């Protein structure tokens, strides 16, 4: 088979050209043991400070950065260990925004995050995806409900395809997984509420 981008076979373009047009945010974001500024600027070395900050704003991370004593000059530690998972992911999103490729790929970008961090990142993705072709690979279905087209894979084969609403109406594999995940989320929220109430009683 062939992979076509805007009708052009990728075998007919150089690897550098292909890489220039694709930006990826993986599940396990790699950050360098340098400043936040350096980690974002890595995508476009000649970027201005204004461009860096604009990318951070779109990724919902600017306010957090300027709240730090060193701001954009904060060193993140080896592999970003001084930051939470959500903070690292939003810096990775800012990096991709700065690169401004035609195609964005988010590979399980929110799978290891709590619901609050996930929500912040989803807001970022919505803003960024409006002006780019965006592929989102996800097991957590809440991250893809706004997609124009959802492709459901089972054992390596496409079994369903459509919008979130259309797939729910089909009552197939996607609808089954959605129901399971919604039930899990409700149980999790109930547990968190009980823990919160218990802590308040203890105080």
From TrEMBL:
Short name of any one Pfam family annotated for the protein: ABC_tran
Gene Ontology terms: biological process: intracellular iron ion homeostasis
Membrane topology field: Multi-pass membrane protein
Cellular location(s): Cell membrane
Identification of the protein by name: Efflux ABC transporter, permease/ATP-binding protein mlr7818
Keyword Ubl conjugation attributed: no
Alphabetic keyword roster: ATP-binding, Cell membrane, Membrane, Nucleotide-binding, Transmembrane, Transmembrane helix, Transport
A single Gene Ontology CC term: mitochondrial inner membrane
Gene3D superfamilies reported in the protein's UniProt record: P-loop containing nucleotide triphosphate hydrolases
Any one GO MF annotation of this record: ATP hydrolysis activity
InterPro entries on file: ABC_transporter-like_ATP-bd, ABC_transporter-like_CS, P-loop_NTPase, Type_1_exporter
Boundaries of every ABC transporter domain copy: 5-180
């Amino acid at each position: 088979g062939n992979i076509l981008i805007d009708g052009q076979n990728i075998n007919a373009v150089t690897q550098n050209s292909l890489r220039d047009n694709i930006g990826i945010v993986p599940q396990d974001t790699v950050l360098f043991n340098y400043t936040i500024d350096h980690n974002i600027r890595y995508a476009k070395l000649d970027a201005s400070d204004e461009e860096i900050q604009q990318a951070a704003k779109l990724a919902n991370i600017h306010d957090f950065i300027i709240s730090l004593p060193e701001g954009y000059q904060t060193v993140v530690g080896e592999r970003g260990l001084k930051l939470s998972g959500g903070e690292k992911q939003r810096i990775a999103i800012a990096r991709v925004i700065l690169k401004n490729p035609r195609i964005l790929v988010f590979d399980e970008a929110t799978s290891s995050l709590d619901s609050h961090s996930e929500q912040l990142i989803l807001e970022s993705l919505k803003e960024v995806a409006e002006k780019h072709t965006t592929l989102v690979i996800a097991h957590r279905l809440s991250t893809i409900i706004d997609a124009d087209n959802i492709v459901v894979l089972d054992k390596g084969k496409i079994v369903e395809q459509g919008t979130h609403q259309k797939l729910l109406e089909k009552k197939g594999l996607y609808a089954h997984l959605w129901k399971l995940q919604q039930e899990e989320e409700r149980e999790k929220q109930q547990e968190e509420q009980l823990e919160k109430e218990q802590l308040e009683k203890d105080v």
